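Help!! Second protein's tokens look totally different from the first
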Amino acid sequence: MDTIDTFAPEIDGKTLVFATPGYPVKQIRLPILMNQVFPALGINAIWIPIEVEPANLSSIFTAFRHFNNFKGMTIAIPYKNPLVDLVDEATERAKRSGSVNLIRFDENGRSYGDTVDGLGFVVGLEAKGVICKGKSVYLVGTGGAGCALAVALCDAGISTLYLSDIFPEKAEALAERLRSFYPETTILAQEVPPTHIDLAINASNSGLQPNDPLPFDPTFFEKHTVIADIIMKPKETALLQKAASLGYQIHHGHHTLDYQVSLYLDYFGIEHDPSVVLELVQQIP
């Protein structure tokens, strides 16, 4: 597949609806991808962003259950943690992370939640040659995405995980919870880690806005450290720009989503060739 066409979805009474609720949603890239993936796969479906204020989250979620053609959603900030308590059934990794980024509904309106943010991040990293097993990691941000990344990194066999958050109690709570599941991994809530870290990750919101401060200074780390950001828009965050200008290996946020799309389709029971879908999404700006 060398090029892609621009697809316009044909919406009719049989169209399935998927969505991404968040607050805000202007940074969300997934609807752009899925509204080209669906037609390419011959699926009569659309994907829409839904901006929901926190006070309305519960009522909106309840309403979705009763739309027969509404099949599921991915979750954007800041709702990955709250929604884990609203779904009827969550996977073990969702329970461990205390978050969901995928929810589907069955024909009776029962909801099922999972999180593949972390799995997509790890798969995307390793596709770029960064192997997680045995590595030391500094992770900034312990919201829904950060919790999911922490679980996936521990599942991937990292040796040490340092957690940091602007609310230190959140980092400590996550560290304590994860230690009960991963006794073989050293897990510490620690704002300032050692300099000899293999992988430093921004999983916070810092970088979404032009005037945001850096989540951390990459120059604190030795030059072998890989600097990663999960923010997708802008692609070149201030953190990644600074790290790249100084010669660090960087890892962009869009890789996490690129390698999740096939996981989403699996979760919603949509047949596809993962290699074809990956090639398609990597061509979409």
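Here's the second one for comparison:
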Amino acid sequence: MRTVHVLNGPNLDLLGQREPEIYGHATLADVERDCRAEAESHGLELLFRQTNAEHEMIAWLHEARTGAAGIVINPAGFTYHAVPVLDALRMCECPIVEVHISNIHRREAAWRAHSIMTASVTGMITGLGVDGYRLAVRHLAVRIGRGE
């Protein structure tokens, strides 16, 4: 079975509670439900995970490196300085979509507008709220369906 890995970084376990004026009221469980429905509608399996630990994210990327059909990653706090996560992403052989719930280019601090992860991903969705996840899964499903 073709599997899409949806990987979430630090503090996303508090989605729906943390800064709802920026991130909205949907929970990570809501995001998982939507991603799972999208994946299943395309005949894909979904592996959905969240971690606050950089080493765990790296291990998951190593696991996905050769077996995943695609990866959706919201690196969250890893976005800006986690070079080991970037290096692990570079080793992945499948398409990767980076997702950010908020528009990182409109955030209050200039440093939030620069993701080091973009150097290794296929594309990025930013600022579309939690809908960005579902759109990322759909994009990967289309690519997988075309054999890309």
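Reply: Different proteins will give different token patterns, so don't panic. The chain has a mean pLDDT of 94.
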